Q: What sequence folds into this?
């Protein structure tokens, strides 16, 4: 007998996944996008794709990313505006890595307001700095399909080789220890204030990111389903 289709299509409200680098935003966003059948929009992945293609934006972004700094707001906002204006984002989508500054959050609100979108569900995935360091230094990413591994907690069956498609597993340039410290500093300085921005106006749901990825996904799904049922007026 065929396995039941657990995919629940649709999501009325945009979901914003926040949290420090390494908290598991990318892994979780992928799961949610699959479950609800909506796009996973990662600004980091979009920049890495530009770098891979060698575009002008990619060249500019790479220099910034390699220093663990943030790409200027106007560039990121323009990229997001174009992306969420596409037809596949007409209803719900999952944002991963955006907004990362208060000006980005304000711009996103303006974009949502103009498009008449409902309030987003904002989720903060928490992880302490020691766990962040272990996650980031151990992270390996498949060059082919983008599958994420961790050499300590979730190693591939064969070293450096993706279980799913045999692709080569590589370390991100910005997962080096010196760059990680700068990314964490950028997070504290620019992204922590975004929680205050959202908290003042609506609930931010906080989750413990140190649990297993499956447990975090379960809690996330429960949270999103509950928030969707409550409607957009928090
Ligand atoms: P991530 O994959 O989300 O860790 O992003 C990797 C890098 O891309 C970050 O360290 C930044 O340099 C850049 N980046 C991604 N998203 C943003 C954003 N919303 N604002 C500014 N820079 C970003």
A:
């Amino acid at each position: 007998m065929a396995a039941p289709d657990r995919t629940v299509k649709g999501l009325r409200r945009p979901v914003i996944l926040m949290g420090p680098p390494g908290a598991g935003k990318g892994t979780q966003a992928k799961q949610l996008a699959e479950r609800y059948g909506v796009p996973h929009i990662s600004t980091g992945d979009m920049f890495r794709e530009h770098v891979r293609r060698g575009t002008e934006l990619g060249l500019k972004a790479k220099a910034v990313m390699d220093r663990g700094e943030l790409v200027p707001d106007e560039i990121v906002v323009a990229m997001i505006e174009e992306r969420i204006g596409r037809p596949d984002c007409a209803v719900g989508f999952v944002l991963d890595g955006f907004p990362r500054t208060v000006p980005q959050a304000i711009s996103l609100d303006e974009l949502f307001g103009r498009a008449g979108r409902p309030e987003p569900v904002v989720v903060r995935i928490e992880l302490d700095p020691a766990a962040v360091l272990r996650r980031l230094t151990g992270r390996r990413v498949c060059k082919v399909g983008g599958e994420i591994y961790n050499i300590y907690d979730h190693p591939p069956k064969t070293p450096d080789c993706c279980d799913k498609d045999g692709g080569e597993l590589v370390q991100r340039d910005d997962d080096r220890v010196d760059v990680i410290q700068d990314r964490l500093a950028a997070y504290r300085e620019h992204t922590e204030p975004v929680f205050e921005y959202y908290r003042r106006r609506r609930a931010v749901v906080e989750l413990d990111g140190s649990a297993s990825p499956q447990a975090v996904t379960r809690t996330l799904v429960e949270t999103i389903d509950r928030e969707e049922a409550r409607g957009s007026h928090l």
Strands lie at 15-18, 40-42, 94-96, 121-126, 139-142, 148-150, 169-170, 204-208.
